[in-house]
Amino acid sequence: MLQSYACDPLHSRGRRYPQAPAPTRNEFQRDRDRIVHCTAFRRLVYKTQVFLNHEGDLFRTRLTHSLEVAQLARSVARELGLHEDLVEAIALAHDLGHTPFGHAGQDALNDCLRAAHPQSGFEHNLQSLRVVDWLEERYPAYDGLNLSFEAREGILKHCSRRNAERLLRQEPGGVGLRFVDGTQPSLEAQLCNLADEIAYNAHDIDDGVRSGLLTLEQLDGVALFASARDESLAEFQGLGGRRLLFESIRRMLSRQVEDLIAATRTAIEHAAPESASAARAMPPLVQFGAPMQVHNTELKAFLRQNLYRHPQVIETTDRARRVVADLYAAYGADPSALPKAAAAHVRPHRAIADYIAGMTDRFALREHQRLTGETLFP
Ligand code: MG
């Protein structure tokens, strides 16, 4: 049951290139389908989430992460009466702009661009929007996927004021506006942001333990995990190993999702937005309750300290940064090494960044080897 504060495809703010409605699908289903069929989406399977893609077959990739975000966000949307298809579209597209090698790749590319052009830079949220607005080449009449305003609004999760002003010059009143006037995105977009956090906090614990970089003993220090584990052991005495880990993560996830639904429901009842637009003008309504917010912050701090900054992760991300920096330098020195269209681009530094950002981990490694003769990841 769609609530009055949900985004309604019949009242969408429309597409950049107006199109007749599809005969059998609503506008947000159409967005989702376009995303699933695009090239950038298929590349997510070979892009790093935390562990480099070639480090193991069972770790999350950007693709499986995006699927987990989508399913989590959809179940919350159904409970809250938000639009499930829109939530799914945003979740599946939210990481399309990620470079190979995760955040290490993004940081390296950002540094390269800034060194070349101080006014420039690389930011994956803005790149996700670039992918769906410009970089996908699938339709005869326009560049990009021509998604609805609501999907694009959700994809642009963060944006600097300078970039927002630039977007507004291209598209007055468009998706850049909220970063200038301080309003919120739709409740569907707010939900996807939190579903992203819930998903990666949970799956990074799983992957962290699987990789041997995190231990169950270390996780004793994380209150939310420890209580979920105690609860699992109380119900299943003698449970250990993987099944204990999975059961604890499952309970931790459920608790966060249930808390999110309850706290958001209360906030919505209290604020009583009469429409999706009214909700955008209010403070964020999709939220955890205060105690869960504390747990969530603790969990994130734990993962940052013990997993993302683990010496072994830092060591591989350092090499990954070098791959990206070397590629940028090599294409800059010899544009003929780029595909023809990129080599002819009027803004070569942006074309190089787009090309590198679109690469999968393994393609970037092959290109690096081809251009430098070095093997950084034997
Ligand atoms: Mg994500």
List the helices and strands and how they pair.
Elements: H1 27-36, H2 39-43, H3 62-80, H4 84-93, H5 102-116, H6 124-135, H7 149-155, H8 161-170, H9 178-181, H10 187-211, H11 216-219, H12 223-235, H13 241-271, H14 276-280, H15 290-308, H16 311-333, H17 340-343, H18 348-358, H19 361-372
The chain binds magnesium ion.
Task: Report the C-alpha radius of gyration, rounded.
Answer: 21 Å
Q: Approximately how much helix is present in the residues?
A: 55-70%
* Mean of pLDDT: 95
Number of strands: 0
Small molecules bound: magnesium ion
Order of helices and strands: HHHHHHHHHHHHHHHHHHH
Largest sheet: none
Strand content: under 5%
How many helices in DSSP terms?
A: 19
The gist of it:
The chain is mainly alpha-helical.
Question: Can you walk through the features of this model?
Answer:
This protein is mainly α and 378 residues long. The chain has a domain at 195-304. The chain contains 19 helices and no strands. The protein has helices at 27-36, 39-43, 62-80, 84-93, 102-116, 124-135, 149-155, 161-170, 178-181, 187-211, 216-219, 223-235, 241-271, 276-280, 290-308, 311-333, 340-343, 348-358, 361-372. 43% of the residues are buried.
